[in-house]
Every structure is written in C-alpha cells, then in structure tokens.
Amino acid sequence: MMKGSQQQQQRPLLIPSPRTPGKEELPYTPVNASIDASIPVSSMPVKPYSDSQIEMSGDFVRNPSSQSIQSKSSSGYSIKEVSFREGSDVIVNPVVRYGSSGSNPGRYGSRGASSGGFGSSYKEIKDEDARLVYVNDPVRTNEKRFRFAGNSIRTSKYSFLTFLPRNLFEQFHRIAYIYFLVIAILNQLPQLAVFGRGASVLPLALVLFVTAVKDAYEDFRRHRSDRIENNRVASVLLNGEFGDKKWKDICVGEVVKISGNQTLPCDMVLLSTSDATGVSYVQTTNLDGESNLKTRYAKQETQAKASLLGEIGGLLIKCEKPNRNVYGFQANMEIDGKRISLGPSNIILRGCELKNTDWVIGVVVYAGKETKAMLNNAGAPSKRSRLEKHMNKEIIILSLFLVALCTVVSLSHGVWLRRHREELYLMQFYRKYDYSEPEVEKYEYYGLGMEIFFVFLMSVIVFQVMIPISLYISVELVRIGQAYFMIRDDRMFDKSTNSRFQCRALNINEDLGQIKYVFSDKTGTLTENKMEFQCASVGGVDYDNGKAISTEDGQTGYSVQVDGMVLRPKMTVKVDQDLLHLSKMKHTDEGKHLCDFLVALAACNTIVPLTVETSDSAVNLIEYQGESPDEQALVYAAASYGFMLVERSSGHIVIDIQGERPRFNVLGLHEFDSDRKRMSVIIGCPDQTVKVFVKGADTTMFKVIDKSLNLNMVKATESHLHAYSSKGLRTLVIGMREMSTSEFEQWQSSYDSASTALMGRANLLRKVANNVENNLRLLGASGIEDKLQQGVPEAIESLRTAGIKVWVLTGDKQETAISIGYSSKLLTSKMTQIVINNNSKDSCRKSLDDALQLYKKLSNVSNSNDAGHVAGTNQLALIIDGTSLVYILETELEEKLFELSSKCTAVLCCRVAPLQKAGIVALIKNRTDDMTLAIGDGANDVSMIQKADVGIGISGQEGRQAVMASDFSMGQFRFLVPLLLIHGHWNYQRISYMILYNFYRNVVLVFVLFWYVLFTGFTLTTAITDWSSMLYSIIYTSLPTIVVGILDKDLGRSTLLKYPQLYGAGQRGESYNGKLFWYTILDTLWQSITAFFIPLIAYWDSTVGVSALGDLWILAIVILVNVHLAMDVVRWYTITHIAVWGSILATFICVMVIDAWPFLPGYWAFFMIAKTKLFWVCLLGIVVAGLVPRFVVKVFVQHCKPSDIQIARVAEKFGHLQGDAETEMNPIFDLPQRTATT
Amino acid sequence: MSSDDGSSKKVSKKPRYSRFTQQELPACKPILTPALVIGILMCLGIIFIPIGLLALSASENVVEVVDRYDDVCIPSTDQKVGFIKDPATNKTCIRTFTIPKKMRKPVYVYYQLDNFYQNHRRYVKSRSDRQLWNPKAEYSTSLCDPEGQTGDGKPIVPCGLIAWSLFNDTYSLSKNDAALQINKKDIAWRSDRTHKFSPNVYPKNFQNGTLIGGGKLDENIPLSQQEDLMVWMRTSALPTFRKLYGKIETDLEANEKITVTIQNNYNTYSFNGKKKLVISTATWIGGKNDFIGKMYMAVGGTSIVLGVIFSLLYVFKPRPLGDPSYLSWNKNPALD
Question: Which residues form a coiled coil (chain B) (predicted)?
Fold first, then answer.
C-alpha cells in the first residue's frame, strides 16, 4: 500500500489555494491500518483538504461560522463538493490530515475505513465517466469510441518540424521579448529605421538563439530517453502465452506479466501475484521518491483464476477516467457475475519497481500519457520575488521617463519643424526628388502631426535601452549562479539523508534575505521524525528506561535463531531491565498483562517485516517497513522485548515470542480514522480465543475503556501520560478485550456486509468498529520520543537575533508542543505565556482582549522601568490551539489575533490543521508587507509552504510532498541559518545592487543619447554607432555586473553568523528601495551630464566629426559605468578584475573593430581622435568629474551615518571581529535532558 | 534505535569542497579609510590642477582670427537668396584683418558654418559609402534619395545630400599684397584617401540637377583626390562646426594685415546660417578653448577642498574604524 503521507502530500499540489479548515478535532495519536484478505489496506484519503472540510457530518459542525467557511471554500471546489453530496451520508474520513502528530498525519492512518475511506469509491462510477477494460481483450477494449492512449510516451516538446514555431512561440511568452520584438519591427519600417537592420535585430536574435539551442539540447535528450523507454520490453499475454512486446506497443486491456525488480510499463490492475495470498511489493522511488516498500494486493477472486491463463478473459473492469491522483483509484470488476470493488491498493503504477515478489500479472488500465506518473509530470509553481515586484514598479517609472523623453523630443521636433518650415524646403531634408516639376513637393514629409508621431516612435527605438531588458536576463543568470552556490554549500549538505540543498524555484533567491516570519512545522522539521520508543506504562507502572542498558554499542539486541540463522531487528531499542525481566515471567498476572501489551504492540499495526541479509551470512536483519514511524518504533520496541513480528501475510501474522512462533490470524482490522482516533485489530490467537487490540489517542481511548476494571491503574496511567507528554513524548494508549464466539460471529457478519456495501461503506465500517471498540481493558500506554534535530535551539536563537519571528505550528498536543518549545529555545522561562484554549467565539474574543490588556500592562511596566534591557523580561509567548483558531481565523477576531501575535516574541500553535497553518500564514501575509517563510516536511505543511512567500521543504522521513511543493528543500532545520543569514543576505545584497546598477547603466546611456538629440534638430541622430549602442548591454557592460552579482560579498560568512542582526538590512529593504532608486537616477543624471557635455564643450567650434565624438561618448560611458561598479565592489577576486577591466578593454577593441570597417561612415574615426591628447584628457576628466560626487557622498555617509553592514565590513577587515568569529552559532547551555531522569 | 545505515552504501552527494563553491576565494577587500580617502582626493587635485594649468596656457597660446563674412559679402537687399543662387552675379568679396599675435606655422584656415544641421538625421543618412569605394557599386544609391539618381535614372556619384551640399566658397589670402599660399593637400584623413574614397571612382552626374546644392566636382579627378569632399563628408557632430579649408605653411607675424578674397558661392541665406572664416593655430588641446583647463582646475580644486574638509572631519569628529560598538543594536538595544 502506499504510504499515507504521500498520498496526501501529492494531492495538495493540485489544490490551488489553501483555505482555513473547519474545526474538527485533531486526532493526536493515530494508529492503524488494516489487513484483510479481500479488502486490503486501502490507502488514504484522496483529497486531504477538501474532503475533510466539505464533508459536514453533523457532529463536526459546531458552529455556523464554520459553515460559512465551508461554503466559501466550496465555491472553488464545487465539483468535489457535488461528488460528496452524491456520496450521501457517508462520512469520509474527515480530519485525516490534521491528524496525529502535527507534521505527519498522513503517516498514521488517515486511511478511511477500508475502501470507503478512499475518496469516493463508495460511489458508483457512472458509465459516461468510466473506462471499460475487457481483460485480455485489447481489441474490444479499444474499439471505436474507446480509443485509449497507447503506451508510447513522449516527454519531448518538439519534433523536428515543430521546433522553430513552437519554441519561438514559447519564448515570446516573456513580455520582455515582445518589447524587444516590437521595437525591432518598428525599426524595420523605412520611416522609422533608426538603426541598421542587422544591429537592431542582433540582441533579440542572440537571446532567442541561445535559448533555442538550450531548449533543443534538452529536447534532444528527452527524445533519446523517450526512445529508450519506449523500446523496453515487457512480457505480454498473447494467444495464451506470454511473449515479449515493446513497451510502446502495449495497449489497454492487455495482460502483462512483470518479474521481480522490473519496472512497470503502465498502470495495471493486479490480477495475481506469485504469493498465494495475492500480496506484492512495489517501490515507488521513481514516483514520489520514497524508498519504502508499498504493499499491493491482487483480489482473491482473480488470484485464483489467474493461474489458469485462459480464464482471465471475460473479466470486465470498469474504472475511472485517467487522473493525476497517484493515491486514488476506483474501479470495480465483474467476475462471475459478481462485482467487486478495486481500490488504490489493487493498482500498480508506471515507474514503480516490483520488489520482493517473483512475478505479478496485471491488466493494463492506463497506458502511456494517461498513466498517473505521466499525468503528474508538472513543474513547480512559480513565484515572483518581492524585489522583482519592486523592480517592476521602478521599471514602470522608467517607462514613464521613456515616454516623457520621447514626448519632449517629438514635441520639440514639432516646434523645430514649425520654426524652420520655410527652410525645410531649402535644406533638402524634406524635398521631393523630381525638381523639374514647377510645383516642388516635399519629400517624405507627412505633415506636422505625423512627423511628430514618427519622431515619437523613433525616439522609443533610440531610447529603448531605458527599459533594461538585459536586466531580466542577467538577473536570471545571477540567480542561477547563486543557486549553484547554495546547492554546493557543503554546510547545507545533510549527511544523514545524503541530500543536498535544492533550489526548486529559481526566481526567489533574494527573498531569502528579507524574511521576517518563519512558520515552522514541528515534527520532522524541528524534530528528527525518528521515533524512538522511550517508555511505557504497563498496568499502571511506569517503565521509563531508568535502568536501561544501551544496546547500541554492543549490538547485543534481542535476536532469535532459526535454522541456524540469527534473526535480529534492524534497529535496537534501549530496553528497560525491569520490563524485560517481567516479560519473561508469563505465569504471573503482571507477566500476562505485559504479554498482551507487547502482542498488541507487535500486532496492532500494518507493519510489514522484511528480512535483509547482511554481510555476515549467519545473521539476518529484520526490517520493519510501514507508513508510520510511530508504529515502526512500537514494533521494534516489542521486538526488543522478545515479541518479534517475523511474518505478515494478508490473513495472519507470526510473532516470535521468545523462541516460540505462534501464528495469529488477523480476522479483521479497523483502520485509523480521525473521528475515532484509534485503530483496532481483531486477532484469532493460537489458543482459539479472539481478541480485539486497540490503540489510539488518550482522549478517545479513555472513553472506550472500562474504567471500572481497575480504576487505580487507569488513574496511574493517566498521570503517566501527562508526564510523558510534558516531556515532549508522543503517547499512545493501548487496550484490548476478548470476544466471545457469538460476538465475533455477529461482528463478522456485520463487518462483511459493511465492507461489501456499495453505498456508505465507510460509515458502516465505522459503526462496526465503534461497536467492537468498547469496554476495553487498559493495557498501558507508550511514550515515543521524537528527538529534536541537531542545532535547532541554536538556529532558533540565531533567527530570533536576526529579527525573524519564529512561529511553530504543530498538530501535536499542547503539552508536547510547549515542551518542544522549551527545548528548542523557542520559549524561555523569561517569557510570559499567554495560552488561548477556547471553545467558542466569545471566549476567544475575551481571551484576546485580556491578552492585549496584559500586553499593555507589561509594556507600561517595562517603560517605567527605563526601557532597554528590561524589555527582554517581558517578552510574550502566545500559545494557541487549533480549536480556538477555528473561531478566530477568517472572522473579525483575526485582527485582534494579528495585533496580539505581532507583539509576541514567540507564537506556538498546537493542534492545528493543515489548512489552518495556511490560514495563519495568510493572517500575517495579508496584513503586513513582511516576508514570510514556511518550512515543513510533511503533506500537512504543503498548504502553508505554498501560501508563504518562500516555502521550504525538509526532505526527511516523510516523503516528498512537502519538497515537491516547496521552493527550496534541504535536509535539516538548522540549515535555515546559513540559508537565510548568509545566502539570503548575499542574494539580496547582490540582486538589489545589480538591479539598481542596471537601471543606472542603461539610463546613463539613454540620457547621453537624449542630450545629443537636443543638438540635432530633435531628429534622433545618434553619434554612437548602432553597433555600439546594441553591444553596450551585451558586451560592454554586461559581464562585470553578472560577475559581481554572483561573486561579490558584502560581508564574510563568519561575520554574518556572528551578528545575525545584520540580516535586518534585508528586512528593512536597505539595499533597494524607492529612495535609493531616486538617488541613483540623480547620480545618473549628473554622470550623463559630465559624460556628454565635457566633450561637447571641449570640442565646441572644432572640426570634430560625429563618429569621433560618438566614439568618445561611448567609451566615456563604458569607462564611467565600469569604474562606478568597481567603486562599489567589496571583494576583488581575480575574475572581478578580469571582468571589469576586461570589459573596458573589450569596448576599446570593439570600437576599433567597428571603426576599421571602411563601409561605415565612421571609418578610422577612433584612431584619428585617439591620436589627440584632448581625447584622453576628456576621458579622464569625465570619469573623475562624474564619479567624485558619488565618491564623496559614499565616504561622507560611511563616516557620519554608517550602516551596520559598513561598520561590520570595516571591522571584519581590521580584525575586530576575529576570535570567536569561527563559531557557527552561539553555544547553547542547557539542552534539556529528557532521557535518563528517574 | 540506531540510525539507518542504509545510506552509507549510496554514493555521497556531498558537494566537493573547493574554495570557489564555498565562496571563499581569496579576495582583496579595499576599505575607504580616512588616509585613503584623503590620499585619493589630494592625488586628484595634484594631477588635475597642473593639467588644467597646462590646458589653459595651451588654449591661451592659440591665436585665432574669426571673421564672419556672410552678412557683409552680399548686397544689402532682400534678395539675398536670389543673389546667391544666380550663377551670373559676381560673388567676389574682399575682407581684411590684422593678425593680433604671432602665429607660428602651420596656420590652419577653417570655414565655420552656424545653424547648419549637418547632424540632421535625414542629412546624415543620405550617403552611400559603398559607392565611394567600389566602382561597380555606383547604383547603390538607395539611401541617397532624393539625391540618388538623376531624373532619367542615372546614378549620381557621389550621391546623397551630404555630397550634394558640398561647401564651395573659396578663399585666397594675401599678405602685404603678396599672395599667401594655402596648401589644400592632406587636409583630409589619410585613411579616407587610401581606403574610403577610391582612386578608381570618378564623380558622375554630380550637381547636374536643376537645383544646385553646392560645389561641383571635376569629373576627371578621382574621388581619392577630392579632399574637400572628404572633409565635407566627415559630417560634423554639432549644428555649428568648422572644417579645414587649408594650411598656411608660413608664420604670420603680429599686426600683419591679411587680405582675403572670398568667392561667396555657398547659400546659407536660405536657412539663416552664418559663414565664418577662421585662421588659427593649434596646440595639443585643439583650438582656442579654455573649457578643459577650467574644468580640470575646478575638479582639482574641488578635490583638494574636499580633501581638506574630510581631514578636518576626521580630526574633529573621529570615529574608530570598524568599532562593533557602533553597530545599531549595540548602540540601542531597545530597538533590537
């Protein structure tokens, strides 16, 4: 079966925007899964968000406000809603995703009751929505109107013929290119031809060409891989025999046989497997990156038939149309007149690999591009960085400038024409060719209005560089460079998962430097999500490893010997000696009790044991594969006490109990659902008794436990539970009871009828489960630790010092969350905690008001206490739970919550549902300009990752959904510190400087062109040659800014880590803002004036030609612009030198080459003017006069009002920061020891 | 549980360490220290002021005589344009002026046109550079309209408005009644004579139309020897410009009287353009223009003043370099 968490995770990608969830109760302890011969564990709910919401089963809907939320939300999802309505009264797994432990609800359960839980499988598939597959009859299957896609795939975008048009079409989706194109086209009109044709098309052609070559190469590789893929061979049933067939020829309806370790060619419904019970295992690494084995089942009915190949035919499968939901599948199959339903656990998908199974036979239901794997081939969503949005604003200002300049030029030209209207004729500018006519007509003179209009268009062409098109391209290049450095940073490499940092979104690098809020998930993000069984309360006695012996070093964990082979659990657990001792005394009451407890741990789950060979041939390891780390931890724990689960088939399990191997029949299994928040399994024991084992969250378990049996024990267990959760442990309560034969039979009949019901199956199954899960005998409780990740407290400390607010949003219990809060340094003892747990809107309002009052009081106190350091003692921490949030989010109380939370140093939200997480992000995002970052690892974090400005996925234990939805992914929470404080800071500084510089660089040129136009009768003559003005942003000035944008560092790594406060520069937008933009424009104005007017006046009344002066101007601008950059470079690498000085040199060379071309009017002009001393004196004068003001202002600001960055830079240089600068983070003193206290 | 050891089998994806990928390349980090700032400013002053002085004195040494003649070399009638366009009228005009200071050879003779938009877009584009070099390209006149071809479709060489409007006033100088030779050789760029204007291309159909723009060209002399045309075809950057007419290879003494006989052929009256005759010496700074000198003096002076101001600032309002205690959060922790 598929891993639950994945199913949910993938799904959210399809959901456009998250909504605030309704308010179901959040299950804390999940459990369960099911094994059943005929209806095997069906995986997960298909629609994690929407299902749970829309579905309003009465008891969940507590107040009208939620109704409104739902109706609001439903608008976007009307289709789904309809489908639920159709589903009548069935409750589909409502909360699912919010469940369990905060981060990974999916992991536990979230499987609905049997197949019903899975989306809408209870619903009949309408004929028009169905695809009919006649097994082993591809001809009939594919006849006429049902032509299904073949299995050949095409991931390539272009064919040889379509490449040019399609590629161009795609490239011109960029607005910048359109601008380029329009300008180039305008320039082709004879009236408007400002530049030579070649020169005007060159930049666009260059960019298009480079991109096209890149695309062509990528597509070529795709073609190649497609070809390889399509020509692979699979074994297909033909005329009663299996024969080889190429993948591309496989079609729907054919029966395919796959051997072990082969890759699946298409989506197939399993008919039979080599295992008699119909079990097979697949690995879905290619699909979702998880390496866990998933179990898939063939239906018993077909399993039996398939052995006789001839009889496979005649089956009819009716399944839904192809869709991209990897975790959902619904279909039914007609077999011998009976209809049996098929779920996601009966289908194996293209791209998966068959493992641990000799062979399987299946029938193709989706092929080629209709397979789920292909339908899911979609890219990550694209975001736009804040800087870019800002930049676009400034670009609009620049285009207004452009329009203004053009208007000035065209109107002045109009005036000029008017004043010279008599002379035009004589000066021959507007004279018709044929002079012999008595009436001399004006030559190409279109009247004043048209002339003005033409001049306007021409000036747009001349001044086109005002809009820095090249900026978009260089910014992209720089981002690629930055991404390269981020990916290559070995400080962000996670050894344990062997994963590098990943940039999934390339266009928001610089946002990392402006983050104000970090929303973090807890489990798997702050913690390792490696569950470790810590302690148990059995029979009212707390065993918490007090006298534990560590077995890790000695490898002396529990092992059994079978046939001379030693079998050992793969992971060893610290064993409590008392408990171990007790477990061996089966004759005592306590021993029996414990025995039941351990059997429950070993049996009440969906874990599959796998035997792994080791290098030592005498030792085999047993590895437990399963979806829930908690369940794995429990099974490993049971194994350490001698209750080793060694075998599971669909109908039974074998547990090695201290050498004996009794076989337990699994008679039934009620999956975890978020309503019951428990799972149960009905076991037929070897002694012919039938027992129900139940495990689940304390809140719901205590309701079904018969407290009268042993009140003291219940009390003791409750207090232990409280203690566990205060230590940050995840708790589960375990109970059991025996079933009498009559009761069992009654259960069995109702279970059978429920599980085969076509309508409302999930609801019926839940009722059945509720009937069984009662009057339980309490066995005990377990405490599982989820260890804090390395470096988390230090990271949070650093982030907080950097002025970033860290909020933790978790699905865990409040006590657990607070405890993790303390250990992760999110909460400190100095903070005043405000806890809001309310059940109604009014009480929420009151709590918020009270809290605000409290804040005012506290701030008054601190004010009277003379401010300053004292403020620290009055920091507030807000702790709020999901139930309260239901009444606050999306109501008018949001405003209050925002006000309050903005005053709090730390905010901790517990028991929040995934959509509430997004709601909280939206709370901040909608009200401030501050940048938000969400980080999480599980499917339940997807909504907030997508909602936040920057989404980061932790590629940890929980599958890839969060990573798939994220913009960046990394292995550990603590990498956030180097990511934000170092790379974010650098990225921001680099890109913002680059944008300003690019504006400046292009505007200088435009201004110089503009000044010259004023001296040419406003006719847009350019002294600078066409080629030079086109090469200006391509060769003359582009490389240095890119090199500086990629390499320059304002501050070193250690300084940035030592003073996280330096991050504030980005948060305050110090390096790019409106003020800086206008200063830059002023500077630009001055520099363009010096560059233009110094030569102009120096050569006034001289014989200088237009080409020579043009060469002087372009060289002056290029040197000016490059020296300007050189002045701002902080770190000079060799390559920086090469880029800056090389560009100047390249410009000289280009100018020489252009002037060495006799067919151009400016032939040899450069060499003639460069011979004169005046030329060089002018250049020097321009550069110095142009840059002195900037230099002086820079020095002055640095001396009188230095920014933190400037101080730190100087300090770095002169060594005031050395010493402890090497430490990456501040040390942390009192990491709470949660273990080993007794 | 012990940690999963399965990953150890896989190839580690750990990025290979290099100073480049870790962004730890050695770098030079210049800091604007007070000494450096003052040093730079003072250096600028020290370099700029002498250059400025040199430029000023160079400009000072240039002797320049400018004589506007368009307004005097024409009968004071309203029919100026009619007069100038009539080929029959006598356009000879005699001007005299005194040399104010000794002019050392070579002395350059320029003509200066004001308000003549030689940089007007239509004018600048109206030429065919291919035609000038390649005898076979005489028909490439597409850019030259309306002066590309004659009425019956023959190509004009050289075509275009620029050539058509060739300046054709002539000057002959005499000093104390002795003729003063004006050398009109080598007034154009050597590159033009050798690579741009071909010795094999001869003027054709030039100035044959009804409307005469300016000077005519001797059809027997190849373009490579038409130096006036070459000078004229180097279009000027500004509406007012000078062009070299010729060189006088003798010194002119102070107070010498120079008589110029001008053939006032060129029509600037229709667009109110001025014509001036300029006799001038040249230095490294070009002609008489003290702008560069003044600009350098100003920049140098400003630098020194700024250097002094910064010195005072550093003395009276010093700030320790890179003192972490000046960091904003150290100064005012409450704002943190």
Answer: none
